[in-house]
Structures are given as C-alpha cells and as structure tokens.
Give the backbone structure.
Amino acid sequence: MKVYGLTGGIGMGKSTATAAFRRLKVPVFDADAAVHALQAPGGRAVRPIGAAFPGTVRKGRVDREALRHAVLGQPAALRQLERIVHPLVRERTGWLSSTSLCCWRPAARAAATSSLW
C-alpha cells in the first residue's frame, strides 16, 4: 500500500484533492478533522489542554480562539500544545499501518492529509 501526505497552505487545493481521493474510494485520514474531534466535547485533548492552558476550555470543548491567543507568539507554549495533540493524532493514524499489515492487496491505496509532520 502506498501512503501519501497532502499538505499545503490555505487555498492550495487540499480539500479538492481529498474529495477526489474519496470519490475514488481511497481511504483518507484528515488530521484537521481529527484535531477538531479531539478538542470537541468528550475529546481526549480537552482535559490536558485545559490543564496546560487555563481558560481555553469552555462548555466542555477547547475554545480554539482562546487557545490560539495562548500560544500565538509563544514558541514554548506551542511546543507544549504539540506535545499534547500530536501523539493523540498519531494514534488515530493507526489504520494506515494496520491496513497495510493485515489487509494488503496490490491494488490497495491510501491518502493522508496532514500538516502535522
């Protein structure tokens, strides 16, 4: 199985490319969607982010605007946030490697969208 990473800035066509992969039935991992889920109510990142950055959790979810202000221009704070979020996102990519190990087929393909790595 081949795994492709799709990265780029705003307006570069990542969503369009991802939609094309999905139309072709290519499995897609969307890191942005994973982060949003981790920061939503019940998400595994909510509690550790709230502990590390007081005032950034409201109504059981991470207030992304408050979090942005907490880390903007603060390299140490950004690294701390990355140490919380990146391992949780990587856990969600397990299907990429497990698919290639347990269900490999010559025609199997996968695409990953991510700006984390």
User: Anything to note?
Assistant: The chain is about 50% helix and 15% strand. The longest helix spans residues 75-92. The two ends are 20 Å apart (CA to CA). The first strand starts at residue 2 and ends at 6.
